[in-house]
Design goal:
alpha/beta, 12 helices, 9-stranded mixed beta sheet
Amino acid sequence: MQNKVSIILPIYNVDKYLAQCIDSILCQTYKNFEIILVDDGSPDKCGEICDTYAKKDSRIIVIHKPNGGVSSARNAGLDIMSGNSVLFIDPDDYIHREMVETLVNLMADYSADISLCFSRGTYVRDYAEPDAESYEIKTLTGKEALEKIYDGTSFEFFGYNPTAVMFRLYNADLFSDGLRFDESARMAEDLIINPYLYSRAEKVVSINRRMYYFYHAENSLTRSKMTEEKQIMLNKTVIHMYDDRINYFKGKDGYNSLVNLTYVTALFDIISKIEVTKNSDSKKELKKFYNRKYKEAVKEKRISTKQMIILGLFKISPLFFKLVSKIK
C-alpha cells in the first residue's frame, strides 16, 4: 500500500507567503498526501486563503482555532491526520517539487522511521537549489542520531538544522501513543520533542540534498530580532527543556552517554544565556538552574575533570570565568 503523507502547516500572520508554500506542496511529484492547514487564530487573511484552497483541492483540510502557538497548531493537525507518515512545514517557507517523493522513497528503501533532507535559508522567494550529479545517503539508529545532535558532530548527517522538525518525514506510529508537542513552550518546541521521536526510531536516513527553503521573513517569531521579552521566554523554555531531557534519558537503559552530553551541553548553554540576558529575575533563574544542574552532574560524575574545572570556575565566579575565557 502506498504511503499516505499528512503535511501539517501551523499558520499565523503569514498571508504574504502562504500561497507560495501551499503551491509548492500541490505541485509535488508525489501525489498521495493530505494537507492540514491549521489557522491558529491568524489576524490577517490566512483563514480566507486556507478556505479558498480547500475548495480547489479535496486533499486540503482546514482547521480554524483560537491562537495557541506553533505547538498547539501542530498538535491539532496530529490529532486528525490520517496518513502513514507526517511532514511539518512552516507556512512562510517552501519546498522542492521532489521533496516529498524523495523522503517517502528513502523511508521505504531503508526501512526507516525518519527520513530527512537538507535545508537552505534564503531571502528571495524564488530560490531553487541546483541539482548535483550525486547525493550521499547515510543511515543511523535513532540513538546514534541523537548523539550526533547533542555532541556537535551533526552537520554531515543533518546539515545546518539538526534539531528542526521540518524537512523530516516521520512514521506516524512515532506519535501513535499520544506523543505531542509541548504547548507550554512558545519557542524551541522542536528541541523538546526531538529526544522522544529519535529514541523511538529504529533507523534514521538522510540525504544531503537541500530541498527545503527557509524564507527569512521579518515577522517570524523564531527568525526575527531577539527582544528582551523573547529572551526571557527562551530562557524559561531552555530550563524546562533540559530538565525534561535529562529526566527522560535517565529513565532509558543504555542512554548514559546522552545524559552526560545533556548535562554538559545544558551547563555551557546556560552560561551563554546568562551572558546575554539583561532581565535580573531571568538571570537569577538561570544561575539557580546552573547551580542545581552542576551539583547533579558532579554528584553523578557526569562531567570530566577538565569540564568540571571549567564549569566549576563559572559557578565560583562568573566574572573570573569570563576573564579567564578572554585570556585563553
